[in-house]
Amino acid sequence: MLCALCAGLLGAARPAAADATAFLGANLSPSNRVEKGVAVGVSLLVVGFEFELADNGDDPSAAAPGLTTGSANVLLQTPGMIFGFQPYVTTGVDIYHETLGAHSDTGFGQNVGGGVKISLIGPLRVRLDYRMFSLGSSALTSPVHRVYAGINLTF
């Protein structure tokens, strides 16, 4: 009886799904700068794991440093689309490199945020995201706020 129950539960389990996002957005701290990046992730029913690389240039006139981040994140999301939308919240750890003129700082930080994946057609979705990055104590700007829109492909 127990074996039949376990087999039934395993047979009903949703397989893991992977996705990739290419995004363009804005680093808002301390001034607006274009940010670009990619993210690749895998999702189980409500928990997902994601790796992300992002970069934006500096703006010396606004004393805004360039920032490159590499992040490992955990996502909590709805188990599927709700009327074509899949909201999520996320948190993770980062390694960052910040530059402005002669200043250069590499360290560790953390991020928290959320967003929504919006179904378009088939495996194609739009992804809207907000993140707040808390960088190490030597960073010129922390926290850093970022918003982006991206094209997301599930596979």
What features would you describe in this structure?
There is one protein chain. The chain is mainly beta and 155 residues long. It has one domain: Porin (Beta Barrel). It is built from one helix and eight strands, in the order αββββββββ. Strand 5 (85-100) and strand 6 form a beta hairpin. The chain is elongated, with a radius of gyration of 18 Å. The two termini are 35 Å apart.
Order of helices and strands: HEEEEEEEE
Q: Can you tell me the CATH architecture? A: Beta Barrel
* Averaged pLDDT: 92
- Estimate the strand proportion: over 45%
Strand order within the widest beta sheet = 1-2-3-4-5-6-7-8
Number of helices: 1
Which CATH class applies here? Mainly Beta
Which stretches of 5+ consecutive residues score pLDDT under 50? 5-12
Shape: elongated
The level of helicity is under 10%
Rg over CA atoms? 18 Å
Number of strands: 8
